[in-house]
Amino acid sequence: MTTRIADRRPAALQLFLTGFLVLWLIIAAFPFLWTLWGSFKVEGDFFSKADWMNALTGPLTQAETGAAFTGAGYWGAWVQEEFWRAALNTLIVVVSVVCISLTFGTLGGYALSRSPYRYAFWLLIVALVFRAMPPITLVSGYLLPFFQWNLWGHLPTAIIVLVAINQPFTLWMLTSFFRNIPKDLDESAMVDGCSRFQAFRHVIIPVMWPGVITTGLFSFLLAYNDFAVTAMLLSKENQTMVPKIASFLGTTQTKGNVMFAVSSVVSVTAPLFLLVLFFQRQIVSGLTAGAVKG
Amino acid sequence: MKHRTFLWFMLPSATAMVLFIALPIVSVLIQSVYAPHEQVIREVENCTLFGCTTSTVIDQEATRALREAEPLGRFVGTAIYTDRNHLALSQIGALWSASSGIGDFTGKLLNLPFYGALAFTLTYTALVTPLSIILGFVIALSVNAVPRLMRGPMIFVSLLPMIVTPLVGALILFWMVDARGILGAAMQALAGDPDLSVKASTPLMWAMLIVYGIWSSAPFAFVVYYAGLQTVPQDSLESAMIDGASRWERIRYVVIPHLVPLTTFMALIKIMDNFRVFEPIVSFNAAAHAQSLSFFIYSDLGGETRLLSSAAATSVLTILGVVILLSPVLVRTWRSFGKGAA
Amino acid sequence: MTISMKGLALSALLGATALSPSAGLAADCGIEAGRVSIVGNEFPAIKTVAAAAADCANAEVKANLTADHQKINLPGMQGNPAEYTSAIIATSSIVALMNEDVIRPLDDLVAALGQDIPKQQLITIDGRVMAVGFMANAQHLVYRKDVLEQVGLEPPKTYEEMLAAAEKIRAAGIMQNPVGGAYAAGWNLAQEFVNMYTGMGGEFFEPGTPNVSVNNDKGVAALEMMKALSGYMNPDFLTHDSNATSAEWEAGNVALMNMWGSRTGVLMDAEGSAPEVHTNTMVGAPMKVGGGDTPATTLWWDGWTVARNISDEDAAATFLAMKHATSPAILNDETMGQAVWMIAGYEPAPVNAGVMQTMTMGAKPYPMLPYMGLLHTALGDNLADYLTGKEDAATALADVEAAYVAAAREKGFLQ
Fold this sequence. Notes:
The complex is a heterotrimer of chains A (294), B (342) and C (415). Chain A is built from 14 helices and no strands. By secondary structure, chain A is an all-alpha fold. Chain A folds into 2 domains: 5-76, no CATH class; 80-289, MetI-like fold. In chain A, α5 packs across α14 and α10 (183-191) runs antiparallel to α11 (196-225). By secondary structure, chain B is mainly alpha-helical. At the A-B interface, α1, α6, α7, α8 and α9 of A face α1, α6, α7, α8 and α10 of B. β2 of chain B pairs antiparallel with β4 of chain C, so a sheet runs across the interface.
């Protein structure tokens, strides 16, 4: 691979950047690596109030399990507490949220980017104001009508709520992205006799993927990490991972359950690693083709 | 684009937002100007596992008729907005006339819950927003400088603060910064003070919340900037080099202007998110030292007796606060939109 | 895509029933038909109750046990028919359900189906049975036998003695911060104030009215005692809830604390702490303070209720299922230690001695007043300013009263 001329840096700068990067990677990864290590210990060691060195040496793990490491947290979470059900629910929620919000968002974002009228701007502003609403107020407002109309507790309800809450962000990102796709593309298609929708389908969709995937990453993370909506709107059997982890912690932390939470967090990070590796080219080329415009 | 076509394209997205955001906002607005009916209290005898005591209950029969006549409650106008737990207008007036000077007045003002929370929220927003954006920018520059093959894992590691569920992430960090945790012990060693405890002092707690905020939101800025850097037009860079522009000049006149729109977008989103800060306060049990508007909503809704009107009023004030903070950015966007549309 | 998604969702639904009855025989609770849906907090004793209810034959039993139960139980019972047919609640949380009139009086059901429930378990409010209690809880002394022996002291009977003991332990160089306590700002801190103020003999309200009265000598004395105690606590005490306090205990950093009876089982078992800590952990009676006769603690009960907005058939099924779930049938070696069960046949284990003593010493129950929740929140939000030294005790209490008055005005308790 040839380096472009403009990419060449003076050695001092390169050194500084590399040093900074190493430092950042340590800061970013340290809590996670610490958790990874600690997930094979017992709670008394990992959350030791006596001495933090216990998390490394693990005297209580040795005393209670007879070995330096224990897989009890993983066994408890996945086998005893059936964490895989929550993982499955999360998969359904996340895939649906990403697909639906991207479908809604690309249609809306495309329209907003192509409309010459002022109301398009105002719509974007209104969407932004919508986003300012604290989610916790929204969710507590949903409870009563949802219970009344028997919508509470089902996965589709949580999915559509997450899609709606995520729409303002999705619209903003995709609108800016579509603005950077030259108008001539779809307009020349329309001169050739395509309708607006045909132009969108045949001309825009093929070139829009990079931006859509970047937006999708953020939708994914939102749905994946959401606690406010899923904890309050889903019944026990439809519970997703994050509320399940919260229930391991509970109000009164039952002994050992805290380690279920820790090991669940560790074990669900692995698929994300693969996901990021798989999509990193797209993430990058995503904003490559169309940078976000304020 | 024709109005009609526009409508069809917007329909799914707009419907979702109207149903699940706009309608709730309207109901919150209504809720904030109504309060529950005056309650009729009656003395009664309660018997539990531990014997009988005299107590009081709400007379349900007496209030039922009132409730059915006016299901929304009693109209109180802006009374909730101006009461002591929110804007506290009359209390401020009294404080102003009673206090000896500006310093005294400010101290007492910050003791009022709304203004105390506002002080923390604004400090947090003012520091976390720019610092996390700058940190994200430098990370993006650094990752951009390593060979392509290594970038994938580095992107993943850099995203970790954003990926690990805040629920558990904060729990672990809470333990780490404990006086006996690894970070707490490290800080004690660095400061040379064996009694130093982050969780016991208000300034250190603020600092910790802010550092956590920067740490957890830098990855967002990083991803956006990193992608932005890939799009810097190479032709412009190279022609600038041929024209003899120095490294700094190229950054100043080519790279930065290219990244300005990204920065505006991120500032918009981040100001909004930081103004609504709430999760770290709960996770770090920091309520003794720092509170925020969203934390008030959480405690109004999570208490044993829920204060719905109060939570609604605080939510409306939060939205107004966000709009005020964003207005400079919005004016900018308005101008650039004008240009784009022309 | 859509179809396969639906298939996935369906199989997840079919696969997951919240509390599928254990493979054994279903219990005969006398239910003919009906729907039972329980909402409650999530800890082992409540899980036992929910699982026992799920064993009942002929009923469709679901349970949603979650830490957020207080946020969803009210809306979940306001619909018609209500999603939840029963809410498991405690002394303080029944008030919110009563204030909104969503639970039904149980007199008819008790007369027809519940003659075998001991009278003592029936929680009556204004002469009507509103709930059935099944367990008790209270905060009381927990101490380290070995540490007190080292300094030659008996377990403290008052908070004043606790301070003296703490000073001796510190002076002897055994522990730097020998006192523990759940003083986390918010609910926990307010609860500690409620204890101390009760011990001082204070009244929270003018009798029979919602007019608050905590800004007085007793309130100041209670706060001063709390501040004196905090001087012997880990400096982070304002962030320590009962979980963190228990962790401090297990690490052997603390020798004296006022702790929930429900948490002592964990402290005395062999897991999570060194042998010298758990073998020397003892529970004692609650302490008194300021020369008062009432122990500085409050008694709590947990109980179940039946929703108003459900059919009579569902109400009967719920009543029977919950009656079964809190009957002597649930007591076995495993469940016996989970709580202080207020059920016939319960034998207190040593860990439960503290709660039993609290009851015999005449401690007061936590006030079951419609506006107590508002005061509790106001206390939790404002007392930390005094303990951090930002303001004096009277100012903090004045702030509490002002915050309470604003909230009570909004709720319509005060004009």
